[in-house]
Amino acid sequence: MKADSIIKELSGWKVAPNLKDYNEARASFSWDAVRRDLDGLPGGGLNIAHEAVDRHADGARRYHVALRWIDRAGAAHDYTYGRLRALTNRFANALRSLGIEPGDRVFVLSERIPELYVAALGTLKHRSVFCSLFSAYGPEPIRTRLALGRGKVLVTTERLYRRKVKQIRRTLPDLKHVIVVGNEGTTPGGSDTIDFHRLLSSVDEAFTIPPTDPEDAALLHFTSGTTGTPKGVVHVHAAVIGHYATGRLVLDLHPDDVFWCTADPGWVTGVSYGIIAPLVAGVTMIADQEEFNAERWYGLLQDQRVTVWYTAPTAIRLLMKYGERVAGRYDLSGLRLLTSVGEPLHAEAVWWSVKVFGHPIHDTWWQTETGSIMIANFAAMDVRSGSMGRPMPGVEAAVIHRKKGGQIKPVQEPEATGELALRAPWPSMFRAYLDDQARYQDCFVGDWYLTGDLVRRDRDGYFWFVGRADDVIKSAGHLIGPVEVEQVLMEHPAVAEVGVIGRPDEVAGAVVKAFVSLKPGYEVDEALRLDLRAHARKRLGPVVAPKEIAFQPVLPKTESGKIVRRLLQAQERGSTEANRSHLDEPNEAEEP
Ligand code: ATP
Ligand code: MG
Asked: What is d(CA 218, CA 114) in angstroms, rounded to the nearest whole number?
């Protein structure tokens, strides 16, 4: 690790962080104490929506803005905690009026509009299970997920219904009701759909959440599909203990914060941190209807005076591509904490952030399966650029080696690479893979949940991401993590994005190959290729540095924006898989 990779930030805090001393916080932490900090239901049990909405609506934060929704035209629309309670009560009553039972699955297929948030929280109040689908999916991925999840209700918009749902509806016998949000002035759907707003105004505004067992299923998420077919992951109401604790300790939420999580609720981050954690913390959260646009995002950070931001490396890479000058036109001084999740956050991005925002980005690591953040660079801690940080208090993380016969062995030596394992259970740990008990069992050995990610832990207990277990390159007897090579290539000023794989080789087993996309203003040529290779050799040595560099304008990605090395591999083999046909392509082409 370079000495200059440590970024201190403790001086100049505008507000004292909730977690001031990492070791002290770990020593004094207990999940039971966090649970006691939450309300619990008056009639017993624990319900996510009560903690997120009703508890604030019943108290001093009733008139505080819970959701500030920015419409496509850029206008802001505010929903206080009190208003959100009324709307979510109505949605819960609407489900009841339709005969939906607790445990039934309610899907939403929608862009980010207020109705999505109302449906999510109303579903949780009713104790049915909420599942959000990414709105850019085409009919087939929508059909597959609705069928796998046996969705009983689908909430969608008129446009999406017409373009993507109508043609598949007959193939979904479990889908009893489609509730449609209409465009203003038009009648949605037709006779086989229900109008969202008419339905809500036909039911009562009072609703008492029935007793909810903390172990009742609450959320169904599908994973990103980076390593293959997406898996359905089931979470329970007790997960809110994890959302709340990490919202306080990692995202450092304080009552007056304006928090923006840029992830879509079609992914776990967009639900755990784009809906639940900020509301449980009682802050104002931003939801933007529009997709990524550098100027719009900087403008939104500025105009809404966002204080805490949770985003992803793919967005940061795009902002970096636009250059520092664009950022310089905006007043970004309201921001005090920037955080990221989803993919390796390269050291270069952290340094860029210091230049542009005056703060480093704090990386966090977790998975759909873990339900909430497990490893993080905490606000009060020095940031180690390129590192995922240290385990959340209450979370025990280990580096393990798998042995023959299914046994595992924890590795104590610092800097050794192995698989990241987490001691089970913790409140937001997944409780099942949908209809796949065997696969679920396979993730656990004894008390440990095995994550499938390779990491190393340094002497100070910081974790460093090496790669997914499947992505590690075995070259001439060496094990090479793709992320280490990518980190170094990202340092080069010409590089916008990079994915590194092992190209099969008869002699070495595999040779390291990098696929690089360039920033605007750089041309593909031999001199640049040589320059990149020389830079990598100097920094990594000849064994680890890529032997081959290919330039490619666009790298294959999941819908959530992650670079898929598996597809670069397939491309290399000339496999038809490389045309992304099995990734769930967005289907935005056939606009009527
Ligand atoms: P699938 O499980 O379907 O292959 P996925 O693993 O990408 O898809 P998610 O649960 O959305 O689905 O992503 C979790 C994974 O993302 C982690 O296991 C890890 O590989 C990667 N990841 C998340 N955060 C980080 C991070 N901070 N640094 C590096 N990798 C990260
Ligand atoms: Mg995964």
From this structure: 20
Residue 83 three-state SS: helix
Torsion angle of C-alpha atoms 190, 194, 200, 201, degrees rounded to 10: 40
547 close to 513: Cβ distance less than 8 angstroms: yes
How far is Cα 158 from Cα 155, in angstroms, rounded to an integer?
Answer: 10
Measured by CA distance, the residue closest to atom 23 of ligand 1 is: 342
pTM over 0.90: yes
> Packing angle between helix 347-357 and helix 313-322, nearest 10 degrees?
60
Residue 107 in this model has a pLDDT that exceeds 90: yes
Return d(Cα 513, Cα 543) in angstroms, integer. 12
Contact partners, residue 530, CB within 8 Å, separation at least 6: none
**pLDDT 10s digits, 220-275:** 999 988 777 779 999 999 999 999 999 999 999 999 999 999 999 999 999 999 99
Residue 592 predicted with pLDDT over 50: no
What's the token pair of residue 567?
């597809």
Instruction: Report the alpha-carbon distance of residue 406 to residue 220 in Å, rounded.
Output: 29
Spatial contact of 94 and 141, defined as CB atoms under 8 Å apart: no
Kind of pairing between the strands at 397-402 and 417-423: antiparallel
Q: What is the pLDDT of residues 531-563, one digit of tens each?
A: 999 999 999 999 899 999 999 999 999 988 999
270 Cα to the center of ligand 2, angstroms: 16
Using the mean position of ligand 2's atoms as its centre, give its distance from the Cα of residue 434 in Å: 14
Q: Of the ligands numbered here, which is closest to the C-alpha atom of 562? A: 1
**Which fold is adopted by the domain 6-457?**
Rossmann fold (3.40.50)
Ligand nearest to the CA of 566: 1
How many Å separate Cα 375 from the centre of its chain? Answer: 14
Cβ–Cβ under 8 Å, residues 146 and 122:
no
CA 134 to ligand 1 centroid distance, Å: 17
List phi, psi (to 5°) of 467: 155, 170
The residues spanned by each domain of the chain are: 6-457, 471-579
Please give the pLDDT value at position 14: 77
Judged by DSSP in three states, 415 sits in coil
Closest CA to 267 of 233, 290, 291: 233
Q: Encode pLDDT of 444-488 as tens digits.
A: 999 999 999 999 999 999 999 999 998 999 988 888 999 999 999
On the question of pLDDT at 588 being above 50, the answer is no
Distance CA 229, CA 463 (A): 28
Q: Which residues line ligand 1 (CB under 6 A)?
A: 223-227, 230-231, 341-345, 363-365, 367-368, 388, 451, 453, 465, 468, 562
Topology agreement, domain 6-457 and domain 471-579: no
Phi, psi of 567 (to 5 degrees): -80, -30
pLDDT band at 51 (very low <50, low <70, confident <90, very high): very high
315-325 average pLDDT score = 92
Topology of the domain comprising 471-579: GMP Synthetase; Chain A, domain 3 (3.30.300)
From the centroid of its chain, how far is CA 460?
Answer: 27
